[in-house]
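Side project, low priority. Logging it here so it doesn't get lost.
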Amino acid sequence: MELGVLFTALLVFARLGGLFLSMPVVSATGVPRHVAVFGPMILTVLILPLVEVTDALPTLGLTALALAGELLVGILMGSIVNAIFGAFALGCDVMSQQMGFAMATLFNPLQKTQQGAIATLSSLIAALMFLGTGIHMICIGVAVDSFSVVQPGQISDLFAGSTILMEAVATSIKLGVKLAGPVLILVWLVNIFVAILTKMAPRMNVYFSVGMILVNVAGLALLGISLPFLLTIHEDALLDATAKMGLVVGGI
């Protein structure tokens, strides 16, 4: 029985550890690595009495395979939310490119890549929203509840989770374009206005004297005005992603 409890604890730790390794903000560059270790460890101690004990497998190979399966499930659950979380940075990066700020890039610790200053700052704002609204606790709650649906070591189909992740990536791209929509429309209207001015005054360098300044100022103003609404849309998408996390283990 003691061997079974230890084996169950390892499986629970693997699933929760995979979640912490891929969940937004927690897995960001700069976050102390012991958070991804001690967080799942503490949760494992707390919920282990509520989880049905799984009998230890007879061979080391089967044990390693079961641990890998639980780790992959946790990673898939966190990656679904992380994919949607990246939509905000994608949308703001598209905005910065259209507004002419793409040349100034910074390292985005949340996306672990070089992005424009606007996208990096927006990602940090989205991270504050993610933590402030408690979505990270919802993600952990869904992962904990998953043990009541599928016991540790009983995962039989990982392809269902892969399909959900691919759908989340596609949704993230569409959401990013949707979030960038207001600025894209504004830039399009400004370009039309500049084109009309160019026809009216062909000898005047309208694009550099009027167009670029107007795009920069109007784009930043529109982004500042629409930022609360964009965060609300992003929050709803993240909450929808947390609901889909449970589908990785068959639905909750």
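Brief comment: The two ends are 29 Å apart (CA to CA).
Revisit when time allows.
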